[in-house]
Predict the structure.
Amino acid sequence: MENLPNYQLFIVKPLGSTNTRGQRVSIHDVRFNKRIIIPWNYSLNYSGDMGQEFLESKGYKLIGSAADKGLDYYFAAPVDGLFTELSK
């Protein structure tokens, strides 16, 4: 694997509403096994759009995305030296 570049992986999942909370979005930083929850942004259509907007606002330069059948989105960001831990 020495010829492959390192990337930081994020998994974005929509969370349904509950009796006390509206819809939300979960963003999981796979490298640090850290998960944060952000509120649903009703001006955007998909949880993937919300995850992308949030990650880019935190300075991550996303280079690729993918989605699966379960509406989960995956984003990859290049690692320039050190991994940066996800935070709100």
User: Anything to note?
Assistant: Residues 47-57 form the longest helix (11 residues). The mean pLDDT is 90. The longest strand covers residues 7-15. The CA atoms of residues 41 and 50 lie 7 Å apart.
